[in-house]
Specification:
Radius of gyration: 18 Å
Shape: globular
Order of helices and strands: HEHEHEHHEEEEEHEEHH
Number of helices: 8
Number of strands: 10
Strand content: 5-15%
Distance between the termini: 30 Å
Largest sheet: 8 strands, mixed
Structural class: alpha/beta
Helix content: 25-40%
Protein backbone atom coordinates (compact mmCIF):
# COMPACT_ATOMS: atom_id res chain seq x y z
CA UNK A 1 0.00 0.00 0.00
CA UNK A 2 1.37 3.44 -0.89
CA UNK A 3 1.84 5.92 1.95
CA UNK A 4 -0.97 8.21 0.80
CA UNK A 5 -3.56 5.41 0.71
CA UNK A 6 -2.30 4.02 4.00
CA UNK A 7 -2.83 7.38 5.71
CA UNK A 8 -6.28 7.85 4.16
CA UNK A 9 -7.33 4.33 5.14
CA UNK A 10 -6.12 4.80 8.71
CA UNK A 11 -7.91 8.14 9.05
CA UNK A 12 -11.18 6.78 7.64
CA UNK A 13 -11.09 3.67 9.84
CA UNK A 14 -10.53 5.90 12.88
CA UNK A 15 -13.54 8.08 11.94
CA UNK A 16 -15.80 5.06 11.39
CA UNK A 17 -14.84 3.58 14.76
CA UNK A 18 -15.28 6.96 16.48
CA UNK A 19 -18.75 7.31 14.96
CA UNK A 20 -19.79 3.81 15.98
CA UNK A 21 -18.60 4.45 19.54
CA UNK A 22 -20.33 7.85 19.77
CA UNK A 23 -23.87 7.21 18.54
CA UNK A 24 -26.52 4.82 19.82
CA UNK A 25 -28.18 3.91 16.53
CA UNK A 26 -25.99 4.43 13.48
CA UNK A 27 -26.23 3.26 9.89
CA UNK A 28 -24.26 3.65 6.68
CA UNK A 29 -25.73 5.05 3.46
CA UNK A 30 -24.91 2.83 0.51
CA UNK A 31 -25.67 4.35 -2.88
CA UNK A 32 -24.07 1.26 -4.52
CA UNK A 33 -21.53 3.52 -6.23
CA UNK A 34 -17.75 3.31 -6.04
CA UNK A 35 -17.34 5.74 -3.11
CA UNK A 36 -19.88 4.17 -0.78
CA UNK A 37 -18.60 0.70 -1.69
CA UNK A 38 -15.06 1.76 -0.73
CA UNK A 39 -16.65 3.03 2.49
CA UNK A 40 -18.20 -0.41 3.01
CA UNK A 41 -14.75 -2.02 2.61
CA UNK A 42 -13.29 0.40 5.14
CA UNK A 43 -16.06 -0.51 7.60
CA UNK A 44 -15.21 -4.18 7.14
CA UNK A 45 -11.57 -3.36 7.93
CA UNK A 46 -12.55 -1.27 10.94
CA UNK A 47 -14.42 -4.20 12.50
CA UNK A 48 -12.34 -7.16 11.35
CA UNK A 49 -14.58 -8.20 8.48
CA UNK A 50 -17.90 -7.60 10.24
CA UNK A 51 -20.17 -4.63 9.55
CA UNK A 52 -21.92 -3.94 12.90
CA UNK A 53 -24.56 -1.54 11.57
CA UNK A 54 -27.24 -1.48 8.92
CA UNK A 55 -26.59 -0.34 5.36
CA UNK A 56 -29.25 2.03 4.05
CA UNK A 57 -30.14 2.38 0.38
CA UNK A 58 -32.66 4.87 -1.02
CA UNK A 59 -34.32 3.28 -4.04
CA UNK A 60 -35.89 5.82 -6.41
CA UNK A 61 -37.30 3.05 -8.63
CA UNK A 62 -35.25 4.58 -11.45
CA UNK A 63 -31.82 3.17 -10.67
CA UNK A 64 -30.05 1.41 -13.54
CA UNK A 65 -31.07 -2.28 -13.20
CA UNK A 66 -27.46 -3.48 -12.91
CA UNK A 67 -27.13 -1.36 -9.75
CA UNK A 68 -29.96 -3.13 -7.95
CA UNK A 69 -28.72 -6.56 -9.03
CA UNK A 70 -25.25 -5.69 -7.72
CA UNK A 71 -26.73 -4.41 -4.44
CA UNK A 72 -28.70 -7.56 -3.75
CA UNK A 73 -25.86 -9.88 -4.75
CA UNK A 74 -23.30 -8.15 -2.56
CA UNK A 75 -25.65 -7.91 0.41
CA UNK A 76 -26.15 -11.67 0.23
CA UNK A 77 -22.48 -12.53 -0.34
CA UNK A 78 -21.21 -10.29 2.47
CA UNK A 79 -24.16 -11.03 4.79
CA UNK A 80 -25.10 -7.39 5.17
CA UNK A 81 -28.24 -6.21 6.92
CA UNK A 82 -29.68 -3.91 4.26
CA UNK A 83 -32.46 -1.34 4.76
CA UNK A 84 -34.15 0.00 1.62
CA UNK A 85 -36.26 3.16 1.79
CA UNK A 86 -38.51 4.56 -0.91
CA UNK A 87 -41.10 7.32 -1.37
CA UNK A 88 -43.81 4.96 -2.55
CA UNK A 89 -46.46 7.69 -2.27
CA UNK A 90 -44.67 9.96 -4.76
CA UNK A 91 -44.20 7.05 -7.15
CA UNK A 92 -47.86 6.04 -6.89
CA UNK A 93 -48.97 9.63 -7.51
CA UNK A 94 -46.50 9.97 -10.41
CA UNK A 95 -44.59 12.87 -8.86
CA UNK A 96 -41.47 12.01 -10.86
CA UNK A 97 -39.37 13.35 -13.71
CA UNK A 98 -40.51 10.48 -15.93
CA UNK A 99 -44.09 11.67 -15.41
CA UNK A 100 -43.42 15.33 -16.16
CA UNK A 101 -41.96 16.74 -12.92
CA UNK A 102 -38.76 18.77 -13.19
CA UNK A 103 -35.55 16.96 -12.22
CA UNK A 104 -34.83 18.91 -9.03
CA UNK A 105 -38.34 18.36 -7.67
CA UNK A 106 -38.06 14.69 -8.59
CA UNK A 107 -34.80 14.43 -6.64
CA UNK A 108 -36.51 16.11 -3.69
CA UNK A 109 -39.41 13.65 -3.77
CA UNK A 110 -37.58 10.40 -4.50
CA UNK A 111 -34.29 11.05 -2.66
CA UNK A 112 -34.60 13.81 -0.04
CA UNK A 113 -38.07 12.94 1.26
CA UNK A 114 -37.43 9.21 1.06
CA UNK A 115 -34.13 9.61 2.93
CA UNK A 116 -35.64 11.79 5.64
CA UNK A 117 -38.55 9.40 6.26
CA UNK A 118 -36.24 6.39 6.28
CA UNK A 119 -33.77 7.96 8.70
CA UNK A 120 -36.34 9.34 11.15
CA UNK A 121 -38.26 6.07 11.18
CA UNK A 122 -41.57 7.47 9.91
CA UNK A 123 -41.37 5.81 6.51
CA UNK A 124 -41.60 2.13 5.59
CA UNK A 125 -38.40 0.10 5.42
CA UNK A 126 -37.78 -2.98 3.32
CA UNK A 127 -35.11 -4.98 5.16
CA UNK A 128 -32.86 -7.83 4.04
CA UNK A 129 -31.85 -10.07 6.94
CA UNK A 130 -28.80 -12.21 6.11
CA UNK A 131 -29.36 -14.77 8.86
CA UNK A 132 -32.66 -15.93 7.41
CA UNK A 133 -31.85 -14.75 3.87
CA UNK A 134 -35.24 -13.04 3.54
CA UNK A 135 -36.68 -9.59 2.82
CA UNK A 136 -39.24 -8.15 5.23
CA UNK A 137 -41.22 -4.88 5.16
CA UNK A 138 -41.78 -2.72 8.24
CA UNK A 139 -44.10 0.30 8.37
CA UNK A 140 -41.70 2.23 10.59
CA UNK A 141 -38.54 1.81 12.64
CA UNK A 142 -36.22 3.28 15.24
CA UNK A 143 -34.68 6.60 14.09
CA UNK A 144 -30.99 6.70 13.25
CA UNK A 145 -28.95 9.10 15.41
CA UNK A 146 -26.24 9.27 12.76
CA UNK A 147 -25.42 7.93 9.31
CA UNK A 148 -22.02 7.37 7.71
CA UNK A 149 -21.89 8.77 4.16
CA UNK A 150 -19.37 8.40 1.33
CA UNK A 151 -19.15 11.99 0.04
CA UNK A 152 -15.82 13.57 -0.96
CA UNK A 153 -14.80 17.23 -0.85
CA UNK A 154 -13.49 17.23 -4.42
CA UNK A 155 -16.62 15.71 -5.96
CA UNK A 156 -18.86 18.78 -5.99
CA UNK A 157 -18.74 22.34 -4.63
CA UNK A 158 -21.23 22.10 -1.77
CA UNK A 159 -19.53 18.98 -0.43
CA UNK A 160 -16.31 20.93 0.10
CA UNK A 161 -18.17 22.86 2.84
CA UNK A 162 -18.84 19.74 4.88
CA UNK A 163 -17.27 18.67 8.17
CA UNK A 164 -16.43 15.09 9.09
CA UNK A 165 -19.18 15.14 11.73
CA UNK A 166 -21.91 17.32 10.21
CA UNK A 167 -25.14 18.18 12.04
CA UNK A 168 -28.65 18.27 10.57
CA UNK A 169 -31.52 19.77 12.57
CA UNK A 170 -34.76 18.08 13.59
CA UNK A 171 -36.10 18.70 10.06
CA UNK A 172 -33.02 16.99 8.60
CA UNK A 173 -31.86 20.32 7.13
CA UNK A 174 -28.22 21.39 6.82
CA UNK A 175 -26.85 24.85 7.66
CA UNK A 176 -23.55 25.01 5.74
CA UNK A 177 -22.51 28.15 7.60
CA UNK A 178 -23.01 26.72 11.07
CA UNK A 179 -20.66 23.77 11.31
CA UNK A 180 -18.23 23.02 14.17
CA UNK A 181 -14.49 23.57 13.64
CA UNK A 182 -12.42 20.39 13.29
CA UNK A 183 -8.78 20.91 14.21
CA UNK A 184 -6.05 18.29 14.66
CA UNK A 185 -8.54 15.42 14.16
CA UNK A 186 -10.56 16.55 17.17
CA UNK A 187 -14.17 15.91 16.23
CA UNK A 188 -17.33 17.16 17.88
CA UNK A 189 -19.47 14.09 18.55
CA UNK A 190 -21.92 15.52 21.09
CA UNK A 191 -24.92 17.33 19.64
CA UNK A 192 -28.24 18.74 20.82
CA UNK A 193 -31.26 16.40 21.12
CA UNK A 194 -33.08 15.62 17.86
CA UNK A 195 -29.95 16.39 15.84
CA UNK A 196 -29.21 13.98 13.01
CA UNK A 197 -25.50 13.66 12.25
CA UNK A 198 -23.84 12.81 8.92
CA UNK A 199 -20.38 11.31 9.24
CA UNK A 200 -18.00 11.70 6.27
CA UNK A 201 -14.90 9.46 6.44
CA UNK A 202 -14.00 10.05 2.76
CA UNK A 203 -13.85 13.87 2.70
CA UNK A 204 -10.08 13.92 2.09
CA UNK A 205 -10.14 11.25 -0.63
CA UNK A 206 -10.03 12.12 -4.34
CA UNK A 207 -11.53 10.29 -7.30
CA UNK A 208 -8.03 9.00 -8.08
CA UNK A 209 -7.55 7.76 -4.49
CA UNK A 210 -10.85 5.87 -4.70
CA UNK A 211 -9.84 4.03 -7.86
CA UNK A 212 -6.35 3.33 -6.53
CA UNK A 213 -7.90 1.76 -3.43
CA UNK A 214 -10.39 -0.25 -5.53
CA UNK A 215 -7.47 -1.64 -7.53
CA UNK A 216 -5.32 -2.31 -4.46
CA UNK A 217 -8.08 -4.06 -2.50
CA UNK A 218 -9.64 -5.75 -5.54
CA UNK A 219 -13.06 -4.38 -4.57
CA UNK A 220 -15.89 -5.65 -6.80
CA UNK A 221 -17.60 -2.74 -8.54
CA UNK A 222 -20.46 -2.45 -11.01
CA UNK A 223 -19.64 -3.18 -14.65
CA UNK A 224 -21.23 0.15 -15.62
CA UNK A 225 -18.01 1.89 -14.54
CA UNK A 226 -16.11 0.18 -17.35
CA UNK A 227 -16.15 0.33 -21.14
CA UNK A 228 -17.97 -2.75 -22.41
CA UNK A 229 -16.88 -2.27 -26.02
CA UNK A 230 -18.84 0.80 -27.07
CA UNK A 231 -16.24 3.36 -25.97
CA UNK A 232 -18.35 4.63 -23.08
CA UNK A 233 -18.61 4.11 -19.35
CA UNK A 234 -20.26 5.74 -16.35
CA UNK A 235 -18.07 7.93 -14.17
CA UNK A 236 -20.86 8.67 -11.68
CA UNK A 237 -23.99 6.57 -11.19
CA UNK A 238 -27.55 7.71 -10.54
CA UNK A 239 -31.07 7.34 -11.93
CA UNK A 240 -31.16 6.24 -15.56
CA UNK A 241 -33.35 9.13 -16.89
CA UNK A 242 -30.81 11.67 -15.60
CA UNK A 243 -27.41 9.98 -15.87
CA UNK A 244 -25.24 9.73 -18.96
CA UNK A 245 -21.95 7.92 -19.62
CA UNK A 246 -18.67 9.57 -20.64
CA UNK A 247 -16.46 8.80 -23.62
CA UNK A 248 -13.80 6.42 -22.32
CA UNK A 249 -11.94 3.30 -23.39
CA UNK A 250 -11.09 2.23 -19.81
CA UNK A 251 -12.03 -1.40 -19.17
CA UNK A 252 -10.72 -1.81 -15.61
CA UNK A 253 -9.55 0.11 -12.54
CA UNK A 254 -5.95 0.36 -13.79
CA UNK A 255 -7.05 1.98 -17.04
CA UNK A 256 -9.34 4.40 -15.19
CA UNK A 257 -6.39 5.37 -12.98
CA UNK A 258 -4.29 5.97 -16.10
CA UNK A 259 -7.01 8.23 -17.52
CA UNK A 260 -7.21 10.24 -14.30
CA UNK A 261 -3.44 10.56 -14.05
CA UNK A 262 -3.16 11.68 -17.70
CA UNK A 263 -5.54 14.56 -17.08
CA UNK A 264 -8.17 13.30 -19.54
CA UNK A 265 -10.93 14.48 -17.18
CA UNK A 266 -9.01 17.40 -15.64
CA UNK A 267 -11.57 20.01 -16.78
CA UNK A 268 -14.63 17.78 -16.73
CA UNK A 269 -16.56 17.57 -13.46
CA UNK A 270 -17.04 14.07 -12.11
CA UNK A 271 -20.82 14.55 -11.97
CA UNK A 272 -21.00 16.12 -15.45
CA UNK A 273 -23.16 13.21 -16.57
CA UNK A 274 -25.74 13.89 -13.83
CA UNK A 275 -28.35 16.12 -15.47
CA UNK A 276 -29.82 17.45 -12.21
CA UNK A 277 -26.46 19.08 -11.40
CA UNK A 278 -26.71 21.17 -14.56
CA UNK A 279 -30.11 22.77 -14.03
CA UNK A 280 -28.95 26.12 -12.69
CA UNK A 281 -26.20 27.10 -10.26
CA UNK A 282 -26.29 25.82 -6.72
CA UNK A 283 -29.14 23.38 -7.21
CA UNK A 284 -27.35 20.45 -5.60
CA UNK A 285 -26.38 22.57 -2.61
CA UNK A 286 -30.03 23.63 -2.24
CA UNK A 287 -31.07 19.97 -2.27
CA UNK A 288 -28.39 19.08 0.26
CA UNK A 289 -29.55 21.84 2.61
CA UNK A 290 -32.95 20.11 2.59
CA UNK A 291 -31.35 16.78 3.53
CA UNK A 292 -30.15 15.26 0.25
CA UNK A 293 -26.92 13.23 0.33
Amino acid sequence: MNNKLEKLESQSVFIIREAYKSFKNIGMLWSIGKDSTVLLWLAKKAFLGHVPFELIHIDTNYKIPEMIAYRDRLAKELRLRLVVGQNAEALAQKRTFADGLDRISCCHELKTVALKNTLDGTGPRRVYGPRRDVWETFDSGEPYNAVIVGVRSDEEGSRSKERVFSARDEKNEWDAGNQPPELWNLYKTEFAPYTSVRVHPLLDWTELNIWEYIQQENIPTISLYYNQGDGKRYRSLGCYPCTAPVESAARNAAEIIAELESGKFRNIAERSGRAQDQEGGGTLEALRKEGYM
